[in-house]
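I had to read the description of the data format several times before I understood it. In essence, backbone conformation is discretised, so a fold becomes a row of integers matching the chain in length. I therefore recommend that a typical entry be quoted early in the introduction. For illustration, here is how one protein appears when written out as sequence plus structure tokens.

***
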Amino acid sequence: MSDAYEHVFVEANGIRFHVVQAGPPDGPVAMLLHGFPEFWRGWASQIDALAAAGYRVWVPDQRGYGESDKPQGVDAYALETLADDICALIRNTGRDTVTLLGHDWGGVVSWRVAARNPELVERLVIVNSPHLAVMLRHMSVGRQRLRSWYMHFFRIPRLPERLLRRHDFRGLVRVLRSGSRPGAFSDEEIAQYREAWSRPGALTAMLDWYRALMRDRSRIHADTRIPMPTLLLWGVQDEALGIEMAQPSIALCDRGELQRIEGAGHWVLHEEGADVSWRILGFLRGDAVAVAEPAARPVAAVRA
């Protein structure tokens, strides 16, 4: 971790966000959104690479996570509110547009912001997160229905919190380590995750993201196409979100590119951090997919 990181608090959309910042203050902004059950550290492997490339990097703890505020009640975590958060943060950067990057739930929010407020997003990078319209179609059918069992479990009041908190958050640690290669999450990182999960109200707030989505899913209209250049990275071994949702997602992008990372799963940001950074920077430079690709990292690329 770099000593050059700045930890600031930003008021946006009526609450206070903890935001990690790095890179030249006058650079174009790259905003990185984490997913469940992470916090800003989910993008730790990419922050330095983007900052070194000249980007002003903003990595917020999203609503309910880490050191950001944790409003009470499921209503506070509705998808439109989560998207409003990011739009407000983008406006706080002082830039007209940003490059928006999201993993897992951060990807869901990024897809929504890009579809709803395209004037704020210059380029979009999504990692292991399907377009919301694709996710809503797949979560009730086929193999993804089985993979999504935990979303239904999380709807139960209080019981998930009790089970996930037991034995020093052993269940959440298992979520990270059982779905990734050995060593992807160090003991030091796990200790920091436990500290984040232990903050008052954090665990319920994290689960309320799922509760709000499952409650509202029949009313969500999410088929909007994505107009800006979009890179979708997908760790093929993802046990929670199936690769079969990747191509339908990129098909909803006017200028989209799909790259499959064969040897990694859902936690590809940790398993293949340097490779992910390489791919992101190549996309931001406008490199052709097949140029200078390392032999050990074959890319299967699909353009919409």
